[in-house]
Specification:
By secondary structure, the chain is of the alpha/beta class. The chain is built from 21 helices and 12 strands. The strands form 2 sheets. Strands 5-4-3-2-1-12 form a 6-stranded mixed β-sheet, with helices on one face. It has a 6-stranded mixed β-sheet with strand order 6-7-8-9-10-11, with helices on one face.
């Protein structure tokens, strides 16, 4: 092992960068659906040793530049492999957008990798031969991951901490400390081999940190084993939910000539009376994001057809577009969820608050208009932002927290919704991404949110993967990718509020400050020694 490490540290130039890219790609296999997180006990140490190589014989300022390049290339490999599936969206209208795909994919991965480059550059100012350099790296890495999930509307998707929670047993720690804290813990756990091959002068510190990393991971496993062994609360009168997955290809979804059969398929799946899944027992029906292929509120015949399909006293939550004309006589379109009563009456609605930049809206649209690109801005602009977070549901169903598409990716925002939800309903349309790993990653995020909040998650996806998820993150039932069907099941009981749901990312801040204080004390002791 020592011989291998010494050869890695001596690498220079393109060989160092090639290895960083390849091991970044390898590290992405820890993400869902592969969930091969043990591979990070190889990828993360190699990354650390390549950073050692980049810093060798350099001043902190010189090392920062070299380490930033290694961090960026490692991140480029990781994010290009983790998010390649975004390219599938460019093939839906391939004649218009296929040529843009390689540029968009590279730009997306390269942009995300900048955060890992910045973390590596910051770590250079605390770098040394001591195994405690990993603690400094973990602090910088987790801070930049928090920033990545926050700045420019944020994308807290695909981080190292998410890899550490890619299986049910390790995932349970989210109920205690949340996803941001896992970004701090993960580099320490996966740097175990680095601690074990510390130089002789810091062998004692290396062994201590190795034991600490092992203790962290064993504690995570032990807590997961304990929590998964606990029975869920029993519900005297459970809510019966039916999730409809119509499986409409994205190429067909918005063609005017397809509106009739798409709506008919939704109604047929809603009224389907399978053996063991009687429709009259259903309390809550859920259709996916933008399931209705027209402006629902403007189509009385559509509302009447829904009323005929729904049993009395049942509720339908459906994704649909909503539009209104403001005082300037301009039209605003919202990506919404409607709540309908059994008689077709619209009881309430929620407009999506966190829109996808460049997918659902164009950032800085007014700037583009100001510099003469008004036509371009109008072509790209899409939805308007919702204005208010709200709960749906009623006295019988309980309070329902609606989340549209990738709103499920933002744990801190979910905690900012009005308190007291009994379940989360996540409607989405992942048809854009076909049979790739993207929908599996999206499902994994929903499972993470269930554990963090202690709430069941009802997930309705147009082409999959629809699922009913219990508050321990387990899919009770799920509908396969690119299949048509229904899921009917009693909604699992909610748990008492988790430690993370009560204190949120304040837990991460406290752990980060404690870790930083510990690292500072050790650094001062090392200098004085």
């Amino acid at each position: 092992m020592a011989f291998l490490v010494s050869n890695l540290v001596l690498l220079e130039g393109w060989r160092r960068l090639l290895l960083a890219f390849l091991f970044g790609c390898l590290a992405s296999l820890a993400q869902a659906p592969f969930s091969w997180f043990p591979i990070l006990w190889l990828a993360v140490p190699v990354f650390v040793w390549l950073l050692d190589s980049a810093s060798l014989g350099k001043s902190p300022r010189q090392a920062a530049r070299s380490m930033a390049l290694v961090g960026w290339v490692f991140g480029l490999g990781y994010f290009s492999s983790s998010f390649y599936w975004i390219g599938a969206a460019f093939l839906v209208e391939a004649d218009r957008f296929a040529l843009l795909m390689p540029f968009a994919l590279f730009g997306f991965a390269a942009g995300l990798a900048l955060f890992w480059a910045a973390a590596s550059a910051l770590a250079a100012y605390f770098w040394s031969a001591s195994p405690f350099r990993v603690i400094g790296l973990a602090l910088c890495w987790s801070a930049l991951e928090w920033l990545r999930g926050t700045i420019f509307t944020g994308l807290p998707w695909g981080g190292l901490g998410q890899s550490l929670t890619s299986v049910s047993m390790t995932m349970q720690a989210l109920a205690l400390v949340g996803p941001q804290s896992m970004n701090l813990i993960a580099p320490i756990i996966f740097a175990l081999p680095v601690f074990l091959v510390s130089p002789r002068s810091s062998r004692k510190a290396g062994i201590s940190l190795a034991l600490f990393a092992l203790l962290l991971f064993c504690g995570q496993l032990g807590y997961g084993y304990y929590r998964l062994g606990q029975p869920l609360p029993r519900v005297e009168k459970p809510t019966i939910v039916r999730v409809v997955q119509p499986n409409i290809a994205q190429k067909e979804k918005w063609k005017l000539e397809n509106r009739s059969w798409i709506f008919s398929r939704l109604l047929a799946l809603t009224t389907l009376d399978n053996e063991g899944s009687p429709v009259e027992k259903v309390d809550l029906f859920v259709w996916p994001e933008t399931a209705v292929p027209f402006y629902l509120i403007e189509e009385p015949a559509g509302l009447a057809a829904i009323a005929q399909a729904l049993p009395d006293r049942s509720i339908l939550l459906t994704g649909a577009l909503r539009r209104e004309v403001n005082f300037t006589n301009s039209e605003q379109v919202y990506n919404s969820v409607y709540q309908l009563a059994g008689d077709g009456t619209i009881l309430s609605s929620y407009d999506k608050l966190h829109l996808v930049p460049f997918g659902e809206y164009l950032p800085k649209q007014n700037w583009l208009k100001a510099i003469g690109l008004a036509d371009f801005a109008e072509q790209i602009s899409g939805f308007s932002f919702g204005t208010k977070r709200k709960l749906l549901g009623d006295g019988h169903l309980g309070k329902i927290l609606p989340l549209i598409c990738y709103e499920i990716a933002f744990p801190s925002e979910i905690l900012s919704f009005p308190a007291g939800a009994d379940m989360i309903v996540n409607v989405t349309n992942d048809a854009w991404f076909g049979k790739t790993i993207g929908p599996w990653q999206h499902l994994h995020l929903a499972q993470m949110r269930a554990i963090e909040t202690g709430l069941p998650v009802i997930r309705a996806a147009n082409t999959g993967i629809s699922a009913i998820i219990d508050p321990l993150g387990r899919s009770v039932v799920q509908q396969g990718l690119e299949t048509e069907g229904i899921l009917q099941q009693a909604v699992p009981a909610r748990l008492t509020p988790t430690f993370y749901s009560r204190f949120g990312d304040g837990i991460f801040l406290i752990l980060w400050l404690l870790t930083g204080g510990f690292a500072l004390i050790k650094r001062r002791k090392t200098k004085s020694g």
